[in-house]
Every structure is written in C-alpha cells, then in structure tokens.
Design brief:
Elements: E1 5-9, H1 10-18, H2 23-34, E2 39-42, E3 45-50, E4 55-62, E5 66-74, H3 83-97, H4 101-109, E6 113-116
Parallel strand pairs: 1-5
Antiparallel strand pairs: 1-6, 2-3, 3-4, 4-5
C-alpha cells in the first residue's frame, strides 16, 4: 500500500490559520475524503466541509498519491464555487497530475506547499 502525501498551499495555510482550522482537523478530514466522505466534483476536485460545517475546502488530488488543500471559504460568505471556478480547479488538478515527486518536493522547499499528516 503506497502512502498518500497531504499538502496545503501557502494561501490555504494563511486562510486556515485565520479561520482557526488546525492541521490535525485537516488530517482528520482528509482521511474522511479518502473514504469517500466528501463531495466529488469530478476531475480530481473534492469539496469537504470543515470547522463544524462553517467552512468549505476545495481539495485537489493526483490519483491517491497526493492531496492538496487548495481553497477555503466560509459557508456564510459563499454557498458554493461557480462553474468557472470549478473548471479552473479541474485544470489545476490536471496540471498537478503532471508533477513529479521532485517537483512536489521543490514546491515544499520554496514554501508553496506545506506537507501535513506526516504520520499517515
């Protein structure tokens, strides 16, 4: 069984901190996503509720090799992403699928991605 790697983008990290969403909550949520407990929006894009249903996260996946928390919004501010945003996230997920391990490691090195859930 291969190990999945889980990341959050620098932008997501700042937004999660402001929203008091911890890495441990993100790790618990990603385990639920891996078990199918999220909205699969197609094309490697998932929507997962966080923070007692107060926030929504958009997660991009490269198969089951790595998952990236990409976008976060408050339910009170936005009901859902629109079709254009969904298409953009699908395109980004497609480009993430092209990344090699070396590319991902470089994104971590330059702090564009922060790796979380190290024990999974």
């Amino acid at each position: 069984m291969s190990t999945s790697r889980v990341f959050k983008t620098a932008w997501f990290s700042k937004r999660a901190k402001k929203s008091a969403i911890s890495d441990s909550e993100l790790c618990a949520a990603i385990k639920q996503v891996m078990q199918g407990q999220a909205d699969n929006l197609g094309g490697g894009v998932f929507k997962k509720r966080l923070n007692n249903n107060m926030h929504r996260s958009i997660i991009l996946a490269k198969g089951e090799h790595f998952w990236v928390y990409q976008y976060l919004f408050a339910k009170k501010d936005l009901d859902n992403i629109d079709e254009g945003e969904l298409l953009a996230f699908r395109q980004l997920a497609k480009s993430y699928a092209e990344l090699t391990t070396a590319h991902v490691d470089e994104l971590v090195r330059i702090n564009e991605f922060m790796e979380i859930c190290h024990d999974s």
